[in-house]
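Dear all,

This email documents one entry for the complex benchmark we are building for the journal club exercise. For each entry we list the sequence lines for every component of the assembly. Then comes the predicted three-dimensional structure of the complex as a token string, followed by one or two observations. Please use this as the template for your own entries, and keep the labels exactly as they appear.
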Amino acid sequence: MNAPAAKARVLFVDDEPRVLTTMRMLFRAHYEVYFAESGTQALELLRKQPVDVVVSDQRMPGMSGIELLRAARDLNPNAMRILLTGYSDLNAIIGSINEGEIFRFVNKPWSNEDLSTTVARAVTAARVSAAVAVRSGETVAAAPIGPLPAVLVMDDDERVPAQIQAILGKECRVFGATTMSEAVDLLEREHIGVVISDTRVQDHPVVNLISTLKQHHPELVSVILTERADAGAAIDLINQGQIYRFITKPIIDNACKITVNSALKQHERLKESPELHQRYEVAQTPEPPPPTSGSGRLLDRIRSLRSWVTRRA
Amino acid sequence: MNLRRLLPAVLVGVAIGVLIFLLRMTQSVDSELHLQRLDNLQALNTLDVQFNRVLTQAHVAALMTEGDERAVLTDQLGDALDKLDTGKQSLHGLSPELDQALDQFLDTIRDKVLLGLDFQARTTQANQRLLNSASSVPVKVDAAVAAATPAVRAKAKNLGEQLKAQVVDLSVTPSPTNQSDIHAMVDALDQLGAGQPAAYKDAMVQLRYAAADVIQDKEELVGTLRKFLDRPTGPQLQKVEQQYSAWYATQVATAGKYRLALVAYAAVLLGVLGWLGLRLRSSYRDLDRANAGLTRANETLEAQVESRTHDLSAALTDLRSSQAQLVQSEKMASLGQMVAGVAHEINTPLGYARSNTEIVRNSLADVRGLCAAQQKALSLLAAPDASEAEIAAAMDEAEAQRQSVSPEELMGDLHGLLQDTDHGLGQISELVSSLKDFSRLDRSRNDLFGVNDGIDSALKICQNQFKGRVEVIKQYGELPQIECSPSQLNQVFLNLFTNAAQAIEGNGRIYVHTLVEAGGVGVRILDTGCGMSEDVRSRIFEPFFTTKPVGKGTGLGLSIVFRIIEEHGGRIDVRSTPGKGSEFVIHLPLRQKRSAETAQEAVPVAA
């Protein structure tokens, strides 16, 4: 380890003090560790001492983990946020994605190794983005050149792309795809910045596609728009696909517009500062993608998209 | 509403009032009274005339009856005047003109009556004097005739006789020529006196005086009578009658006007009545029509009832199945909530226990290394063939290991970690056993069950909802075991505790009090939550009634509680004060009433 001053600061929040004891044992050697037994205590601490990573429990009396992470994001936007929780309902998960913009969702009981890896990645990302934040303070961001990136909508329902086009207006191009290969075709042909997708397309989960896209094209921003919200799928999508937002149908025009615009901005930011990609680094898919017909080939095509993008650039 | 009911009554009252007023006004002319009054006036007139007559005759013949007749007349006159002045037939107060005329008349006639009373005294005297002077005239004539010379005696005697007759005429039935005749005869007798003896002349002088006395007395008498007769009672009475007639005419005219008004009013009333009648008739017609419709409907009713009954029973079946579904989904929802809580409760201790074990395992590698290094150093020390250098290296190695591991500190940490792990495992096993208690899959309601234990396991399961903010204060009585369905009762307690925890915002307390009651046990669960209004309180046991936002509660929790308690033959009451909290009081019987079949079923279970 380097000089103690260079140690990253990690804050652990859990209402069960024994969890904090364990965390101390696990991480004290590598990081400067801080502990809080409640959300209010954590925020107090954050106001005095900015940290690189916040790891919080979700179910806590008084302030929930999501509320804490949202407040922490406002206080200290560069800090990476991890939710460590025994059980969370879907609303909590969606909230943590949309409001907390969390890096990972870790289930209790956790594996020490995985947790260590996750925290280590979060620390790296936090440090890089802190550096970017300092730099971007100096340079004036240049206005985006060329046409605005387009939006790709993957949905079984053909009406959804038209609906989103209507919501976004004419200045933004929207492409629709009802199958994954169609989507990849479009990704090859068009300059796509944001992917809006249902959790399943043609009965295939999109998590592998989104995950591969994020691995190879980190500047692509994905938004999940679904009516079949499912807690497990949402956790996979955040951990493996680093989805930017999770919204549920029926579509609320205004909220949808805000979400997509913010996703486009996020895309611009990621394109300009590739260092930030680490903030949205996805976890390695635990198992290789299922050998369903054509799916492996599709993912290969996605990998090859990179050369296409670089060629274009 | 009151006004609408009052208005018609007021209208009818006013209409009748107007009618009565008009009727009275038309009958204000009393023709009988009018006739009586006219009779009275007529009688007065007659009496006045009679009075005049009586008094006029009085001086002619001083009859014995004259006084009586006058008294009778005066009485009658008085009566008639009284009638005129006061009483029912009085003419007073009818009109000012009439009053004036009447007063004038009454004054006059009273004067006249008074005069009439005075009259007798005065006429008697005058009559006496007249009689005296009249009777002295013949004496004087005879004296004059006796004194006359025979030449003229016959003539004088003739004249004297005529004079006597004239004087008698004058005093009894005077005629306009009487006086002048008497004067002429006295003058003629005087002329005869030329050349007559002095006695004749003396007698003539006396005769002249006597004749003058007679005339004077007679004139006085006549003057008195005239004065009496000149009282203008007649015209005044006539004026009274005229005024009265004028008044009566106006009365009759007014009454006529009112009669006209009455006729018009009656016509209007008749019109209104007719209109009401028409309306009534049309209402009746509507009623008849409705009645006919009803009769027709009645005829088809039975068929309709049958089809409705069929529909209803179908709907009831639907309702029952959807109710069962809803109850099931409520159970699943509360189960889901419970699972969420319990999963978190278990995963947290499981998380740190597992992590701790891993840390301990990893640390054991270091400890093993240290042990090996120390073992090596020790065995080298014990080995006779070991060189000093080898021992020193081994010792250094062991010391370096010891310093990097720092076993005292590590042992303390490991001990702590294992203690935490133990604690976590204990918590997990406690929860799991509560779950096991909780989910006893019993369908019958005749297991013996300790209510306190049920409350404890429900509290354990709800713990994650209380943790850190809700303090539970238990006060348990020594309860006998009761016959019940434990899993159902557990659900009751779980639902009540969940509601209590949701009612408490921030920090609060839940009091649980159990006690033995006659024939059963009582459970009181009191929270310091937000409480509820009377309106909410009266509806909380209704199915689907919920105060939670849509999608957050099915509104079945408390209705299920109610049903379970009811099925157990118990009862549940609730008291609440908004802002202070709520209290649920449950009474459960010691034994279940069993039907024949459950009793039969119960035997093998008990065995």
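Observations: The beta strands of chain B are 447-449, 470-475, 482-484, 508-517, 520-527, 571-577, 581-589. Chain B touches chain A through 29 residues (CB under 8 Å).
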